[in-house]
UniProtKB/TrEMBL annotation, chain A:
PANTHER family: ABC TRANSPORTER PERIPLASMIC-BINDING PROTEIN YCJN-RELATED (PTHR43649:SF34), ARABINOSE-BINDING PROTEIN-RELATED (PTHR43649). This is Extracellular solute-binding protein. SUPFAM superfamilies: Periplasmic binding protein-like II. PROSITE patterns: PROKAR_LIPOPROTEIN. GO terms for cellular component: periplasmic space. Keywords: Signal, Transport. The keyword Transport applies.
TrEMBL record, chain B:
The chain crosses the membrane at residues 12-37, 72-90, 102-126, 163-188, 195-221, 241-263, 296-313, 350-368. GO terms for cellular component: plasma membrane. Residues 163-368 form the ABC transmembrane type-1 domain. It comes from the Bacteria. It is a multi-pass membrane protein. The keyword Transcription regulation does not apply. PROSITE patterns: ABC_TM1. PANTHER family: INNER MEMBRANE ABC TRANSPORTER PERMEASE PROTEIN YCJP (PTHR32243:SF18), MALTOSE TRANSPORT SYSTEM PERMEASE-RELATED (PTHR32243). The keyword Lipoprotein does not apply. Keywords: Cell membrane, Membrane, Transmembrane, Transmembrane helix, Transport. Belongs to the binding-protein-dependent transport system permease family. This is Carbohydrate ABC transporter permease. It is found in: Cell membrane.
Automatic annotation (TrEMBL), chain C:
It is found in: Cell membrane. This is Sugar ABC transporter permease. The chain crosses the membrane at residues 7-30, 117-140, 152-174, 206-225, 246-268, 310-329. The keyword Transmembrane applies.
C-alpha cells in the first residue's frame, strides 16, 4: 500500500512541479545558464532562481576545470557562475568578470555592504554565505564525563585523551584529513592560526617552510593520533557520517557540514551535537580555521541585456524567502538568517578576536595549496620528516611558480 | 553426453573444480549483490556496521516498508523466470521476427520491449496486487525494504534524462565505431603490406596514451570551437563543448584501436578465398565485401560491438569533462553524487543509481551471452 | 589489394584517429619541450572580501597577468629543451639517492614512486589475470552444459560493471567498519584497518584489478577452448600423457595466441592504471603514472595547471609502455612476416 501511495505522490509531484513561477517576482524571458560548484547551498539557491523561468543550472563536479575556459569563450558559455574566494582568482586574472556596480545600483539596493566583493572600485561578486570551521562535539558525552569544551588545542588533546580512556566512542576525534586538497587545507588552517596569511612573500617567494610550518605539521599529526587510523582517506562526507553514527565525539569541521547532525533520516545523534568556536592552536593565536565566502559572478563576454537578466534572477535566488526555507543549509549573509544551534560555533569562530583570516585570493595560494597537498602526506605515512616534507613542498612550489611565471 | 570414457575425470578433480567455481561465482557476484541490498534500505541501515542489519533492515522495517514472505517468494520466482526468458526465448524471438537484413534493429526492439515489460510488471502491476493480497492475508513484513531511493533518483532527480543521454551516446558510439571499424578491419586483414602492419602498431600505441592527457587537450578547444571555427563556418560555427556528437566522435576515436584489432583478426579467420572468388566473378573489393563478407561477419561484429558498448556506456573521464550538466550521461552523473559534499541519503541514492546503471548491462549480457562466446569462438581473437 | 582501395577502407578510421589522438599526441610532444607562461606584473589594489559581520578590506601588492587589448592574457612560450623532463624525473636527486643506496629517498620523488607502483602493479596482475582467467575457463569447460550459461553470466559480471562503481563497491566492503573488514577482524581477533597503510591498499588495488579483468581473460580463453580439437587431447592420452602434461603441451599451446592477445591488452590497460588510485583514495601511499599526469593537469583553485610537466610525464608514460610492449610487438612483426 505504501508503494502505491508513493506512486500517487510521484504523479502529484510531477503535476505540481511544472512551470511554477509563483515565488519569483518577475517572468524571466532571457535564457540564463548557471555553472556552480555542487553542494547543498547552491542547490537551494539555484532552485530558487529556476522559479523565474528560462534558468538552467549546472552544479558540476568539474566546475573548476571548466569555469575559466567557459568564461573566456566569446560569448561566454554561461551567464552566471557560483564561485568562492578560492575559485575566483583565475577569473580575476583573465579579467572575464563583469563589474556589477551598475546592476547593484539598479536591482541590488537591499544587499548588505559585506556581501559586495570589491577589487578597487569594481564590485566583482555578490557573496551569499560564509563558510568556516567550527568544533562540533557530542554534548551528552562531554556532560557525562564532566569535560569542558576545549578552547585551545592543548585542551583538546587532554579532552581527547579522557574520551579515549572512557571508551564511549570508537575514536575521540574526526577530521577532514584525506590526502591531497583536504589535508593541505587542514595544515593551512593550522598555519593561518599561528601566522596569519603569510604563506608567500610579496615577491612571490615561499614563506611557509619555517618554524610555524613545522609546528602546524606537528599539531596536525598529533590530532591524527586520536582519529581513525584510516584518516588519510577521510573527507568531510566521511567525518559527517562517522559523527552521525556516533563513532567520534569531536571534529573541527566545515560549518556547512555540521547541520546534517540533526537530520533524523540519517543521524543517530540528533540533538546531541553542539558547536563551539574552532579551538586556537596556541595562546594568542587565531582559531584553526579560515574564512571563505561563496557568491555569484557574471561574465564580461555577454550582452548587457543577458547580464541584467542574470543579475535579477540572482537577486531572486539570494532572497530572504530562500534563506527562510533553507536556514540551516549554510551560514547565510542574506537578511533573514537566524543562526541555529549547529551554526553558533561558526559564527563564534568568524567573530573571534583575533579572528580567522580569509583564504587569500591569489595565484600563489593555489600553488601553495597543491604543493603542500602533494608533499606532506609523506610525513603522515612516515616516509618523510616534517622538515623534509616542507622542504619538498617548497621545492615543488618553486618549480610550479617558475612555470607560472611568478618566479624567475 | 558426448564425453568419451577416457576423458571422464576423477571425482576429486570434479569436486575441486566445482568448489572453485562456486567460490569464484560468489566472489564475482557478492559486491554487486551487496550494493543492490544496500540500495533498498534506509541510510542508517545501509551503512550499519552489522551485516545483518544491512540485510534485514530493522530501521527500514520500522518505517513500515518491507517485504512479506509472499513478496519474497514472488520476487525470487519472478527473477528466475526473467532470466530464463531472457536467455532462452528472446534470441529466438529476435531472430524470427526481425525483418531480413535488419537483425540489429530486431534486437534493439526486443531488448527495449523486454526491459519496459519487466519494469511495468515489477513496479506498476505487481506492487498494488501483492499489497492487496498481503493486506488480505494479514502478512507482516519480514525484511525491511524501500524503493524510495529509486523513486528519488528516477523521478525527483530526473535520472531518466541521464539515461536518455547515455542511450544517445552509446548508440552513436556503437554504430559509428562498428561502421568505421569494420571497413578498416577488413582492409587491414586483406592487406599484407608493411603499411598495414605499421598502422596497426600505431593504433596500439595510440591506445596506450593516457586518456587524461587527450581529454585535457580537447577541453579548451571544444569550449572555444565557435570562435575558432567562425572564420571557416561563419556564424553557424558550433560550440563543441556539451555536444553529444562531439563526445561520440571522441569516444569512437579512442575506441578505434581496439575495434580494428579485434575485427581484423576476425576477418583474417574468414578465408580470403571467399572474397577472391567473388572478385573473380567481377566484383570490386567493395562489392565483395558487401555480398560475401557482410553476411558472415555478424558474430564478430556483435562481439566487438559489445566491447564498444561497454566502453561508451562506462566511460567517465571523457563524458564528465566534455559534457554539460544537462547532457550528462549516467556514470559521471553518479560520480557527481559521490564526490560532491553529500549527505548519507545522497549516498544511498547514488547506490540506487549505480544499481540502475548496472541493470541494462545485466540484461544485455544475459541476452547476448551466447553471441559473445560464439563470436569469440568464430575467431574475433586470434592474437 | 591496391593502395587506393586500402585507403578507402581504412580512411575513415584513420582520419578519426589522426584527428583525435595523433594531433593531440604531437601537440603534447611539442609542449613537453616548451614552457608557456603568462607575463606577470605587480600592481597594488584594494580588495574587499566578505566577513560575517563586516567587510574585510586590505590593500596589497598582487602579481597579476598582463592583458592585451583584446582582453586575453599575454603569454610567452620558450623552448626549454629537456627542462620539463628534468623537473619530472629529477636526475640529481636520483643520483644522490642511488649513490647513498637510499631507497626511501628515491621513493620520495613522485615520478619514481609512481613508476615503481605502476610497474609492479602491471607485472603482478598480468600472471594473476591470465592464471585466474585460465582456471575459470577450464573449470567452466568442465561443468555440465546445463549450468554453464548462468555460470558464464555471473563470471562476466565483474567485467561489465562500470569501473567507477566496481571500485566503490569494493571500497565500501572494506573501508572503516565495512563488513569484510569486520569479518576479518572477527576471524583474526585483531583490529584491522585496510586503508591505514600502503601495502594493504596496494593489495586491495591488485585484488580489484584482477577481479575486474579476469572475466575478460576467462571469456576469451573459454572461446578458445571451444575450438580445441578433441582428437589432439585423445591422442595425447593414448600416448599416456598425464592430465598436467596435456594441459602443458596441448591446451596451453593451443591457447597461446589468445594468451598473447590478453597480455597485450592487459599490459596496456594496467600500465594506465588510474581508476584504482581515485577509487581507493590511495594517493598518500601509492600513485600511478597516469594519476601523476592527471594531477599535474588538474587546475588548482587558482586555475594554475602544470601543462609542461604534465606533457613530459605523459611522454614518459608513453615511452614506458612502448618499451614494455616491445617483446610482444616483435612477435607480431615475425607473425606478419610469416603471413606474407
Amino acid at each position: 500500500m505504501k508503494r502505491k501511495s508513493l506512486l500517487v505522490a510521484a504523479v502529484l509531484a510531477a503535476l505540481v512541479s511544472g512551470p511554477a513561477t509563483a515565488a519569483c517576482s518577475f517572468r524571466n524571458e532571457v535564457p540564463v545558464r548557471i555553472l556552480s560548484a555542487a553542494f547543498e547551498a547552491w542547490k537551494s539557491v539555484t532552485d530558487a532562481m529556476a522559479e523565474c523561468g528560462n534558468v538552467t543550472a549546472s552544479l558540476d563536479q568539474e566546475f573548476r576545470t571548466k569555469l575559466s575556459a567557459a568564461f573566456a569563450a566569446k560569448p561566454a558559455l554561461y551567464q552566471m557562475a557560483g564561485v568562492s574566494n578560492t575559485t575566483i582568482p583565475p577569473l580575476l586574472n583573465q579579467n572575464t568578470i563583469r563589474p556589477l556596480n551598475d546592476l547593484v545600483e539598479k536591482h541590488g539596493q537591499h544587499l548588505k555592504p559585506n556581501q559586495l566583493i570589491k577589487v578597487g572600485d569594481d564590485i566583482v561578486a555578490v557573496a551569499m554565505m560564509v563558510n568556516t570551521q567550527e568544533l562540533a562535539y557530542r554534548k551528552d558525552i562531554f556532560d557525562e564525563l564532566g569535560l569542558e569544551v576545549p578552547g585551545t588545542y592543548d585542551e583538546l588533546f587532554e579532552v581527547a585523551e579522557k574520551i579515549r580512556e572512557s571508551d564511549k566512542v570508537a575514536y575521540p576525534l574526526g577530521g577532514t584529513t584525506m590526502s591531497g586538497w583536504n589535508l593541505a587545507l587542514e595544515w593551512i588552517n593550522f598555519y593561518a592560526s599561528l601566522a596569519g596569511d603569510s604563506f608567500v612573500n610579496p615577491d612571490g617567494t615561499p614563506n611557509f617552510n619555517n618554524e610555524n610550518g613545522i609546528r602546524a605539521l606537528e599539531l596536525l599529526k598529533r590530532t591524527t593520533e586520536y582519529m581513525d587510523p584510516e584518516y588519510l582517506m577521510s573527507d568531510s562526507t566521511f567525518v559527517q557520517q562517522q559523527m552521525q553514527h556516533g563513532k567520534i565525539a569531536m571534529a573541527n569541521l566545515w560549518a556547512s557540514r555540521v547541520g546534517a547532525m540533526d537530520n533524523e533520516a540519517e543521524s543517530t545523534v540528533v540533538g546531541k551535537v553542539h558547536t563551539a568556536p574552532s579551538p586556537i592552536a596556541a595562546e594568542g593565536a587565531r582559531p584553526v580555521a579560515m574564512l571563505y565566502w561563496d557568491g555569484i559572478v557574471i561574465p564580461r563576454n555577454i550582452s548587457d541585456e543577458a547580464a541584467e537578466a542574470a543579475f535579477r534572477v540572482a537577486m531572486e535566488g539570494l532572497s530572504t524567502e530562500m534563506v527562510q526555507a533553507h536556514n540551516d543549509d549554510a551560514v547565510w549573509l542574506i537578511d533573514g538568517y537566524q543562526p541555529g544551534r549547529l551554526a553558533e560555533g561558526a559564527v563564534a569562530t568568524a567573530t573571534a578576536d583575533p579572528g580567522p583570516v580569509p583564504y587569500p585570493m591569489t595565484i600563489e595560494m593555489g600553488l601553495v595549496h597543491s604543493a603542500i597537498g602533494n608533499q606532506i602526506s609523506g610525513f603522515f605515512t612516515g616516509t618523510k620528516s616534517a622538515e623534509a616534507a616542507l622542504m619538498a613542498a617548497e621545492e615543488e612550489y618553486r618549480t610550479a611558480a617558475g612555470e607560472a611565471g611568478l618566479l624567475h | 553426453m558426448s564425453t568419451s570414457k577416457a576423458l571422464r575425470q576423477p571425482v576429486t578433480l570434479r569436486m575441486l573444480s566445482a568448489s572453485f567455481l562456486t567460490f569464484w561465482c560468489l566472489l564475482a557476484a557478492f559486491p554487486i549483490v551487496w550494493i543492490a541490498v544496500m540500495s533498498v534500505k534506509a541510510p542508517l541501515d545501509a551503512f550499519a556496521s552489522n551485516p545483518f542489519d544491512v540485510i534485514l533492515g530493522p530501521i527500514t522495517k520500522a518505517q513500515g516498508r518491507g517485504l512479506t514472505v509472499l513478496d519474497i517468494a514472488v520476487l525470487l520466482i519472478g527473477l528466475w523466470l526473467a532470466v530464463r526468458v531472457a536467455m532462452r526465448v528472446l534470441p529466438g524471438l529476435a531472430a524470427r521476427y526481425s525483418p531480413p537484413g535488419f537483425l540489429a534493429l530486431g534486437w534493439v526492439v526486443v531488448i527495449l520491449g523486454y526491459g519496459i515489460a519487466l519494469f511495468l510488471l515489477g513496479f506498476v502491476v505487481l506492487p498494488p496486487v501483492l499489497g492487496a493480497i498481503n493486506a488480505a492475508l494479514g502478512l507482516d513484513p519480514l525484511i525491511g525494504l524501500t524503493t524510495q531511493h529509486y523513486h528519488s533518483v528516477w523521478v525527483k532527480n530526473a535520472f531518466w534524462k541521464n539515461f536518455v543521454n547515455s542511450a544517445v551516446v552509446t548508440t552513436g558510439v556503437v554504430t559509428i565505431s562498428l561502421t568505421v571499424g569494420t571497413l578498416a578491419g577488413y582492409g587491414l586483414a586483406r592487406s599484407g603490406s608493411n603499411l598495414a602492419f605499421w598502422l596497426l602498431i600505431a593504433a596500439l600505441i595510440f591506445r596506450a596514451l593516457p586518456h587524461s592527457v587527450l581529454v585535457a587537450g580537447y577541453l579548451p578547444i571544444f569550449i572555444n570551437s565557435a570562435e575558432i571555427l567562425r572564420p571557416i563556418l561563419g556564424e553557424n560555427a558550433p560550440t563543441l563543448y556539451g555536444q553529444p556528437l562531439a563526445v561520440i566522435a571522441v569516444l569512437v576515436s579512442i575506441n578505434q584501436p581496439f575495434t580494428i584489432w579485434m575485427l581484423r583478426s576476425f576477418f583474417q579467420s574468414i578465408p580470403a578465398e571467399l572474397d577472391e572468388a567473388a572478385r573473380v566473378d567481377g566484383c570490386t573489393h567493395f562489392q565483395a565485401f558487401r555480398r560475401v563478407i557482410m553476411p558472415v561477419m555478424w558474430p564478430g561484429v556483435i562481439t566487438t560491438g559489445l566491447f564498444s558498448f561497454l566502453l561508451a556506456y562506462n566511460d567517465f573521464l571523457v563524458t564528465s569533462l566534455l559534457l554539460d550538466q544537462s547532457d550528462m550521461t549516467m556514470v559521471p552523473a553518479i560520480a557527481g553524487y559521490f564526490n560532491r559534499e553529500t549527505t548519507m541519503t545522497d549516498q544511498v541514492e547514488a547506490i540506487a543509481a549505480a544499481v540502475s546503471i548496472t541493470a541494462p548491462l545485466f540484461l544485455l549480457v544475459m541476452i547476448f551471452q551466447r553471441q559473445i562466446v560464439s563470436g569469440l569462438t568464430a575467431g574475433a581473437v586470434k592474437g | 589489394m591496391r593502395f587506393k582501395t586500402f585507403a578507402c577502407f581504412v580512411g575513415p578510421s584513420l582520419l578519426l584517429m589522426v584527428l583525435f589522438i595523433a594531433v593531440p599526441l604531437v601537440s603534447v610532444f611539442i609542449q613537453s619541450f616548451h614552457v608557456t607562461q603568462p607575463v606577470i606584473e605587480r600592481i597594488e589594489t584594494e580588495r574587499c572580501t566578505a566577513g560575517f559581520l563586516e567587510q574585510q578590506c586590505s590593500t596589497e601588492i598582487k602579481n597579476v597577468p598582463v592583458l592585451d587589448e583584446r582582453g586575453s592574457i599575454v603569454t610567452t612560450t620558450r623552448f626549454v629543451g629537456l627542462e620539463n623532463y628534468r623537473a619530472v624525473v629529477r636526475p640529481d636527486s636520483v643520483q644522490a639517492a642511488i649513490s647513498s643506496w637510499n631507497w626511501p629517498a628515491l621513493m620520495a620523488i613522485d615520478f619514481w614512486k609512481a613508476l615503481r607502483f605502476t610497474l609492479s602493479f602491471t607485472l603482478i596482475t598480468l600472471p594473476l589475470v591470465i592464471g585466474l582467467g585460465l582456471t575459470i575457463a577450464l573449470a567452466v569447460n568442465n561443468t555440465t552444459r546445463s549450468i554453464r550459461g548462468p555460470v558464464i553470466f555471473v563470471s562476466l559480471l565483474p567485467y561489465i560493471i562500470t569501473p567507477v562503481i566496481g571500485a566503490l563497491s569494493i571500497r565500501w566492503l572494506f573501508v572503516g567498519d565495512g563488513i569484510l573488514t569486520q569479518a576479518m577482524e572477527a576471524w583474526s581477533g585483531r583490529q584491522i584497518s585496510m586503508f591505514a597503510q600502503g601495502w594493504t591498499i596496494e593489495l586491495l588495488m591488485l585484488f580489484y584489478r584482477v577481479w575486474h579483468v579476469a572475466p575478460f581473460a576467462f571469456v576469451i580463453f573459454y572461446a578458445g577452448l571451444q575450438t580445441m580439437n578433441r582428437d589432439a587431447i585423445e591422442a595425447a592420452m593414448m600416448d599416456g600423457a598425464s592430465r598436467f602434461e596435456r594441459l602443458r603441451y596441448v591446451i596451453i599451446p593451443h591457447l597461446m595466441p589468445l594468451i598473447f592477445f590478453v597480455s597485450l591488452i592487459h599490459l596496456m590497460d594496467a600500465y594506465r592504471v588510474f581508476e584504482e588510485v581515485v577509487g581507493f583514495r590511495s594517493q598518500a601511499h601509492v600513485i600511478s603514472l597516469q594519476w601523476l599526469t592527471y594531477d599535474l593537469l588538474q587546475p588548482d583553485d587558482a586555475g594554475n595547471r602544470a601543462v609542461s610537466r604534465a606533457s613530459a610525464s605523459a611522454m614518459l608514460t608513453m615511452i614506458g609502455i612502448v618499451i614494455l610492449l616491445v617483446p610482444l610487438l616483435r612477435k607480431s612483426w615475425r607473425d606478419h612476416k610469416g603471413v606474407r
